[in-house]
Amino acid sequence: MVAVVLGSSIVFLDGTVVNVALPRIGRELPATVIGVLEGQTYVNSGYLATLSALLILSGALNDYYGRRRMFVVGLVGFGLTSALCGLAPNLELLVVFRILQGAAGAVLVPGSLSIITSTFEGPSRARAFGIWAAATSGTTTLGPILGGFLVDTLTWRIAFLINVPLVVLGVYATLAHMAESRDDQANGRFDWLGAAVIAIAVGGLAFGAIHGQETRWADQSAFVALGIGTVALIAFPFLMATRPNPLVPLNLFRSRAFAVINLSTFLIYGALYVTLGFQGLYLQNVLGYTAFAAGIAGLPVGLLLTFLSARVGTLAGRLGSRVFLTIGPILMAIGLLWFARIPASSPPWLAEADKPSSLLPSQGYLFDVLPYNLLYGIGIACVVAPLTSTLMSSIATRHAGLGSAINNAISRVGQPLLGALIFIAVSATFYSGLASRVPGIDTSSREIRHDLPPLNRPIGPVTPNIAEGSKEASTDAFHLALLLNSGLLLAGAAVNGLGLRDPRRTSVPVESTSPVG
């Protein structure tokens, strides 16, 4: 458990800590070939796109060549690339090292879940997934706070170098205490063609959506990547149907629970991450929270997820996951509906940190933000461990790495794709609201759309009526985003409630072709 928690935690920790370090990286690291802003986007999008693109390939390699062996390869690779990132002399090399780091991270996430699946059985497996969820959630929650402190007091390089001692401990725990496991029925040649096609599909969709949002869809390469990814994704199942040893056997999706969980993952996790992204923008840029206050404001969600996940995992192992996977998204949606009533006049917390009185939570936080966080935190705590446990129990153990990788890829692609679609609606609502509040403003002009982006502070000085109109229009747009995300969550709850069966009445399949509940 120590090994798998460390292996997956460093991947999640790296994403959150590096995001905090990006501004300082842009100021201190020289760039000669690419611009500073462009380099910063590639430091983030390059890592995430590579991680997403190689997840399914890595999951299949875990099953084919041995999960313990591949886990050590992933740990060592992540440690080496983290050290290279921390020692990078310029921004261009940092981008290259981040791409390599994403490739190493892709081995660890599905590997950790497949190792738990092959090691534990029955209720103990559900509890193990709860412990894994609690530990990784705690790491992700504390990442921005710890990262901000280390980056501010030491150097941005510590955001990468902190991974090295964690990797050393993870390698020791793996070699000393983990047994090898693999797909004993694997035979024939590995499907490298299928691996290449699905990597292009997932990587293209992930990079296109992530990079498109980061550049506000001003870079045509985002649309090209989305187009290539879409074509590869459409071609992939036809290719799998003709391969003698397909990378992804299509009969995996004959498992009712596997298909249902992956659909609900797309909806629920897409809504989860899109909400968190918009929340940070709104609190800081519209309501005036400091970056530290915005991080602390969302802390209840992470704490509830950390402290409740193991208990929920244990209960789900005894009672079944269906009730948790139905109630959890409903609670999250109710939290969003509460948050969608927040007014543009809601007072910020720690907007002026130099005043001692501002250290106390504001009335706006206590009545507008905190209730949403509590409902949302309890709801997501009901989802993470039961969803993972149900997913990994819905397929044969020999496909554990592949099944985990497919689900992770769907989660990581769903977030930017749904985020891009919701951002289109948010932008349209913002500019129409701005036009109605500021008579005579031309919201279709390139200058206005550059200087007044939705959910952001105006770029450069603006008149008071434009500033106030922008704040109110952003609040309307934020409300719409919350309503759309609540709809996704309710759809996920319906998919789980109607599609899943009580696992107490069924058994774990011996082969992936057996439909289960």
Notes on the protein architecture:
With 517 residues, this protein is mostly helical. Among the domains are: 189 residues, Up-down Bundle (Growth Hormone, Chain: A); 56 residues. The chain contains 19 helices and no strands. Helix 1 runs antiparallel to helix 8 and helix 13 packs parallel to helix 15. The longest helix is centred in the last third of the chain and has 38 residues. The chain is globular.
Features:
single chain, 517 residues, Growth Hormone, Chain: A, 19 helices
CATH architecture of one domain, by name, is Up-down Bundle
First CA to last CA: what distance?
Answer: 27 Å
Q: What's the SSE pattern?
A: HHHHHHHHHHHHHHHHHHH
CATH first level of one domain: which class?
Mainly Alpha
The percentage helix is over 70%
Supply Rg: 23 Å
Which structural category fits the helices and strands?
A: mainly alpha
Q: What oligomeric state is this?
A: single chain
Q: What's the number of extended β-strand segments?
A: 0
CATH superfamily annotation of one domain: MFS general substrate transporter like domains
The total of helices stands at 19
Mean pLDDT: 83
Q: Tell me about the largest β-sheet.
A: none
CATH topology of one domain: the name is Growth Hormone, Chain: A
Low-confidence stretches: 505-517
Strand percentage, roughly?
Answer: under 5%
